[in-house]
Amino acid sequence: MSGHLAVVGLGPGDARCLTPEADEALAAAQALYGYGPYLDRVPARADQSRRASDNREERTRAAAALRHAALGARVAVVSGGDPGVFAMAAAVCEEIEAGPESFRLIDVTIVPGITAMLAVAARIGSPLGHDFCALSLSDNLKPWELIERRLDAAASTGFVIALYNPVSRARPWQFGAAIARLRRHLPPATPVVFGRAVTRPGEQISVITLDRADTAEADMATLVIVGSRDTRVIPRPGKLPLVYTPRAAAEVSA
Amino acid sequence: MSGHLAVVGLGPGDARCLTPEADEALAAAQALYGYGPYLDRVPARADQSRRASDNREERTRAAAALRHAALGARVAVVSGGDPGVFAMAAAVCEEIEAGPESFRLIDVTIVPGITAMLAVAARIGSPLGHDFCALSLSDNLKPWELIERRLDAAASTGFVIALYNPVSRARPWQFGAAIARLRRHLPPATPVVFGRAVTRPGEQISVITLDRADTAEADMATLVIVGSRDTRVIPRPGKLPLVYTPRAAAEVSA
């Protein structure tokens, strides 16, 4: 009666980006748990229960799914993008560690997915073509000063930076502060990519320079990629430019 | 006659990790280009030409594929994992920038895939559950000193670190030097994950601590994830442990 829990990455949104492995895991589940808009991507089935919860209730959702699986059920927790990147897999692990011994007996499968930075990068070229980092701008679970130290460290040593969770209603100023911080390290012409709702209705992609980056352009559905000193833009007639970071890098000035 | 070039991410290897979008792009191509072992993953078809080339010939391969597409053909370049992460998309962009105007008229599509760090992370829990970076240890295209600066910056500010290309025949000592460098910043008990050939025959996953990490365990098919101070290991009876990095972080000591 140890049960099974799959944490399933739905990718950026378009069903064409959902892997067969994710499809199978969803099909095999007796019960689905997830943030409402993610659950809505999975076609309803009469023999499958579903429990939608709010965006901020990751731990409660993870615990409920684990309790259900511990009864011997096949349960799936759906996650946007990749479950291991600022998503549900860590919340599930936190609950397993904090929970009863029965949680450790559950057969847990994490099904990877296309995370937002890969989807956005693919749309515009290859901005993550060299060393890069992924940083959440949410200071709900870490101090803002730590985010600033990471921005400093990454920008000053030439990592391209993918910014997750740039903005929310409760966090209106953080993205602007991050851009201001990055301007201390990077030239004004550094390319910045805004990717909103990529592969979903309302998709928007724009490329701007760091000095002109307008933080009002980002919302909760936006993933931002800030280039390094090496990141380049190739203009193309009648098309979006290609943004890429060459595979070769010279020494970064200290 | 502008042609079409798709740069297609095959994911870690198992066909169940290949997205429908990648399948479609492969099916639509008249000609396939790629590193031999990656091409071998794509079933042969009589009406589709294929040109295999060596691992180190990325730019030559990209240029040949672009010339072919510029003649008006539908061409696909296959890439392991995600084409935008230490793979073919950047090489293609380099050739477009350096090449004739006709290359900029080609309709280019990058099809994202599950990159190795996501596949390895999913197998063992959620080690990338907090801020992280992806760093190639190859010093073919950048100076070793720059790699060391990036290791210092990432480890000292609490990024989890995914190490691509830890070892090759021509680069025997770099991985050991990187581990030694990381030991300056991180406690001996920091979890380290070795993921070899994940989702392919011969898959191996192991979890070790930084002080005991044996660099002889890594080869060209290995992706290594070095945790941060916050990364945790949950032992489980009769199963691999779960390794995860909690979503919350405290201040990192300077």
Q: Report Rg of chain A.
A: 20 Å
Helix-strand category of chain A: alpha/beta
Could you say which overall geometry of chain A the principal axes of the C-alpha atoms support?
A: elongated
Greatest interface: A-B, 82 and 82 residues
Stretches with pLDDT under 50, minimum 5 residues of chain A: none
Number of strands of chain A: 13
Q: What is the residue-mean pLDDT of chain A, rounded to a whole number?
A: 96
Oligomer: homodimer
Helicity range of chain A = 25-40%
How do the helices and strands follow one another from N- to C-terminus of chain A?
EHEHEHEHHEHEEHEHEEEEE
Approximately what portion of the residues of chain A adopt beta-strand conformation?
A: 25-35%
* Structure annotation, total helices of chain A: 8
Q: Please give the alpha-carbon distance between the first and last residues of chain A.
A: 58 Å
Strand order of the largest sheet of chain A: 3-2-4-1-5
Quick one: biggest sheet of chain A?
A: 5 strands, parallel
